[in-house]
Amino acid sequence: MSSDSPIITASAHSVPSYLNADNLGPWGIYLQQVDRVTPYLGSLARWVETLKRPKRALVVDVPIEMDDGTIAHFEGYRVQHNTSRGPGKGGVRFHQDVTLSEVMALSAWMSIKNAAVNVPYGGAKGGIRVDPRKLSRAELERVTRRYTSEINIIIGPNKDIPAPDVNTNEQVMAWMMDTYSMNEGSTSTGVVTGKPISLGGSLGRREATGRGVFVVGAEAARNLGLEIKGARIVVQGFGNVGSVAAKLFHEAGAKVIAVQDHKTALFDPAGVDVPALIEHVSHNGTIEGFRAETISAEQFWQTESEILIPAALEGQITAANAPHIKTRMVIEGANGPTTPEADDILRERNILVAPDVIANAGGVTVSYFEWVQDFSSFFWTEEEINQRLVRIMQEAFRSIWQVAQENKVTLRTAAFIIACTRILQAREMRGLYP
To answer: Out of 52, 89, 125, 247, which one is annotated catalytic?
Structure first.
């Protein structure tokens, strides 16, 4: 499919009735991505509607008593997009802008991601529309536990396994695991991943997504003949993913010259002191105030680099800023950071994009390791985990690269070809019941 191929708008019958067909948001972007890959699915294309409809979408009310005695209500979601290849798998985010469209899209991208790296999971995602920064620790715990109780009917170690995402962490997973276990009447460590080590968590899990970004970035650079040592790196988002990726590139001899978070953007042509910046963020919660030049968002996106890593939220690289991005390749640490229109622009400008469904799959890969370890009650060393992670990520990327070269398509389309083929083969072999 050529770079100037028109974007196919999803047909009306593929749009769930509870969404506005004219403003689908992230879900609409996902549908466009599926439409682009459909011509490469051969006889499996007859099943493609399976990919355009979530298996199950649960919307729940999450009422809690606030510290001041008032009652507050928050809206929560858990979407299971596809479970043909195994139980649903995907994170839970706490954010004031969470929407059903967003959670649906994220669950679908999890289906693609899990199939792309060939772990035996389907796709799921969850979220609560809440600003956790405005909650006390006690209120946060009550929100987490009530939400877990509400979605308890569809989650489980063999049904749907949540994990950390935006604004959630090991502590939130511990509360979720405990709540589910209390409702079940027995300890069930495998119901979530990303737990504390003391509760069955896996070594290497916290750094896994950022490590995967680095592994994919290194593989892509090798294929482009780009030397990592001395390469200029630009990172958007300096949370768990962006900071770990920045640290690993820094340790490999690259220069992280620009960083942006929710408050500001910093620039240092000589390279930011990444370990010092990580320490600064751990104390201040933001990169703001660190010793580097402050630049505007527009300047940030126009910073010349070899590698750009968007590791914040979706929809960051758009038709508006894509023409001005000056980099050799984009490694997507975030989910859905590039719109389809921006994808086309970057391709026309010969900027390689390593898509989220492979680039940030390190987290779910080590989550799979954690799940396996919980079932067996036998735990691996961090060295073993990192070795297994690197092997799986490298093999997955090389397969995607080969498909891209054979079909003369982008890496994103190649990843979707592999993933959708695996999902739909499973769907076809299982058949329809009843």
So the answer is: 125
